[in-house]
Design brief:
The complex is a heterodimer of chains A (about 110) and B (about 130). Chain A is about 50% helix and about 0% strand. Chain A is mainly α and about 110 residues long. Chain B is globular. The chains are: A mainly alpha (about 110), B mainly alpha (about 130).
Chain lengths: ~110, ~130
Amino acid sequence: MAGSEALLAHRTRVMRLYRNSLKQMMSWAIQRSLIYEEFKNIRSQFEANMNVPTLGEATRLVEAGEKYLAEKAHPDPYIVPYYYGGSAYHRNPPFPKQISIHRDFGREGY
Amino acid sequence: MALRSLAGSIAKSVVQTMGVSGPSALGAGRLRLGQAALFGLRGYADAALTKDEVTARVLEVVKNMEKVDPAKVNEESCDFTKDLGLDSLDTVEVVMAFEEEFQLEIPDDEADKIASCQQAIEYIAQHPMAK
């Protein structure tokens, strides 16, 4: 899966890198006041490299960014509970329609 | 009825103890705690979000973003790049703001497709876990 990012368009790759870096920062910096400062830092790092002349150099920068992101992975990232890997994933899965609850309290008849 | 007024008063006290004075104090629209608290404490009668409610909240979020001119945001023509003049990193920030507003997790490939308010409204309205 690691090599499949190279198949994406460059713009999409940059957008995904930005998204994942913001989400990872939300896992690391749990105090809300720190988060917006760090978001500004990340944004300024992205904007500093915005006007790079060749696509090859831009691709190298994106790959370096993805490598940096993988280095700083959070050991216990925040995942929304109902999503894959979250705590409430499949907590109440829907059961098949053949199973029905037959309520006959008091009328069992044995 | 009584439950909703009780919920409203609880929500107001939550907003007051957090020291938040309303949407104007919440900055770039990412932290919608007051509004989430008000909408989150609902009875079970209206568990699903209606499309009007989704539209209203989405437009609120977009209007509160720093780089957006609120006068330009209307329902029909708010493509992020063409109408509002945002670049791709701003689009990412807007989608993150939607995720925080509706307490969703939008996967990467769906989030890349959202390029205007209309697409965002359609996506959120059909998402089962949108609050």
